[in-house]
Amino acid sequence: MKKYQVVGIGNAMVDVLAKVEDDFLDDNGIEKGIMTLIDTARATELYGKMGPAREISGGSAANTIAGLAALGSRTAYVGKVKDDQLGAIFAHDLRAQGADYDTPLAPASHTAETGRCMVLVSPDHERSMNTYLGVTEFLSPDDIDESQMADAEWLYLEGYRFDGPDSHAAFAKAIAACKGAGGKISVTLSDPFCVNRHRDAFRTLIHDHIDLLFCNEHELKALYETDDLSIAFSLARKDVPMLACTVGANGAYAYVDGTDYHDPATASKVMDVTGAGDLFAAGYLHGMVNGRNPISCLRMGNLAAGEIISHIGARPEADLKALFGAHGLV
Amino acid sequence: MKKYQVVGIGNAMVDVLAKVEDDFLDDNGIEKGIMTLIDTARATELYGKMGPAREISGGSAANTIAGLAALGSRTAYVGKVKDDQLGAIFAHDLRAQGADYDTPLAPASHTAETGRCMVLVSPDHERSMNTYLGVTEFLSPDDIDESQMADAEWLYLEGYRFDGPDSHAAFAKAIAACKGAGGKISVTLSDPFCVNRHRDAFRTLIHDHIDLLFCNEHELKALYETDDLSIAFSLARKDVPMLACTVGANGAYAYVDGTDYHDPATASKVMDVTGAGDLFAAGYLHGMVNGRNPISCLRMGNLAAGEIISHIGARPEADLKALFGAHGLV
Predict the structure, then answer these.
(1) pLDDT tens digits, residue range A249-290?
(2) Contacts of A67 by beta carbon, 8 Å cutoff, 6+ apart
């Protein structure tokens, strides 16, 4: 048995969440529903304008790993924070959830700070993310512990990490070490604009290395440059043996070994959609690495996503194990 | 018209909130429902043991001022944070709510950090607070701007501030400047253990300077060293012309100019009682400085407290103005 069932690699950051009216998004040129990278000056400007907020650890793959840890899977996370107060908060929240986290800290002398994401939640519960990457941008191959990668049944790679200068090299090192020891690789497309920025790199990675692709319908359409989801599915089948794709209120689709599966979304109260995709991946992966069939995996993904959108923030609040148990899934 | 209706002086801090089981409190020697001062070593130990948390600006008087600002009263706050990430979060959240906040920052070279309070919320929704004061302990008379104090109709003094080394001198300077310009002074007892630590100082302050005393039943009993609330009320009448006292699920009592008033608590969902007293004071003060009768003031206090206990954290989430309007109180 390998030490880890899933090791995630992603951009480590703390979310700064606030409610806003739609006018705020319009007045500040913020596109609703997507993730926009911002620099320090823009971060300062936006923060100065936005209302009172709360801070909750975030980071897409970190949210997934936190969900997996909450469910009892054996997990670790790789992502860079600084030796500062927000970095300490991020590390605490992940370890306290039960995940291993040992990525070297960027020193206090680093000019950038721990990354943060200003998450603006509008009245329709959609979130618009403005990300200051800070030190997490600088994760490099030196931060990848090959023995840890070899000790993982699955890697889970966050698409947002394609934005860092050494990210491709770091991913390549991690993939080689994991695959070399018989592990498998999953990736999430993260965001349609991220796909547009790095389409060729995503296509090559997926074709050459990926065993399981996570995405939503918008990201998959962006990847294959089509408006037709069925065409995107067909093209994906040629690239990757397994896919799990969320389709908003319609739940999620998967194909595994040539067979299609669908699970409708469980109706749930929606407060803030931040982290829905991250926790879908957590539920799906938890099922998969614990030997459940694809329909159960989809069900777990939808249930975990339903929990996360029922409250503010992208880390689980309810007891996910108990939730799965109540649905006969434990 | 004075620039400010209420200026608050308190311990500035960020709350670190997490759910815990009762066993956690027992195992770690934490007394439920009260505020315990802790040092850096204990803070590190407790934080290492507690589960994932979220950070929301707190500080008792700061919560009251945030509530007043949210309601549209003209407010300012005085309390010390450091030039660090948590200090920036605290300052942002207060200013973004509409309060003025100009206390000089402790420099980055200060050995202590911005204060924080580990708020452990148990299954019965009670909160147990473990406070690392950090730099907020060192608020001194130099931090009190006499012209600002003179510009306040009311001061609102936080009892917890009696724990700082220069706190009494800072309070004295603020009181003299405010009263000298015709302003009035209110104080909150904050916590029964805080009252026990500083009973003589509280009694002297109240007798000599206070126009309006905020407290809950436990604090008032501690102040007058009696188990009988009616005796405590009788003793208070000799010390202070106005009192507003919360009595948990029974709502709140007030006496004003020799007349007694009572308003029962509005039934509300309870998630976390952190900040209930702070927001009661916000609602009561908002009514008072805007010329409402004592029953309306009590009603506003109870409604604002009801909002704050319906969610995690001690800063308002709902639109308090709209809430008051829905109850015919605007």
Answers:
(1) 899 999 998 899 999 987 778 888 889 999 999 999 999 999
(2) A278, A279, A281, A282, A283, A286, A304, A308, A315, A316, A320
CA-nearest residue of chain A to B69? A52
Report CB contact under 8 Å: B54, A313.
yes
Say if residues A312 and A304 touch (Cβ distance below 8 Å): no
Domain limits at B304?
4-326
- Position B118: which residue type? M
The answer to whether the Cβ–Cβ distance between B55 and A52 falls below 8 Å is no
* A85 has a chain B CB within 8 A of its CB: yes
Tokens read off for A68: 């997996």
Residue of B45, B47, B55 to mutate for A, most A C-beta atoms under 10 A:
B55
Contacts of A47 in chain B (CB under 8 A): 92
> How far is residue B6's CA from residue B14's CA, in Å, rounded to a whole number?
22
DSSP string across B242-290: EEEEE-GGG-EEEEETTEEEEEPPPP---S--TTHHHHHHHHHHHHHHT
Nearest CB to A52; choose among B50, B85, B93: B93
Convert the pLDDT of each residue in A135-163 to its tens digit: 999 999 999 999 999 999 999 999 999 98
Q: How many domains does chain B have?
A: 1
Percent with pLDDT over 90 in chain A:
93
Of B57, B85, B313, the CB nearest to A86: B85
Residues A246, A112: Cα–Cα separation, whole Å: 34
- First-to-final CA distance of chain A: 21
Query: Which CATH number fits the domain that encloses residue B148?
Result: 3.40.1190.20
Q: What radius of gyration, in Å, describes the C-alpha atoms of chain A?
A: 18
Give me the amino acid identity at A19: K
Burial class (CB in 10 A: 0-12, 13-18, 19+), A42: middle
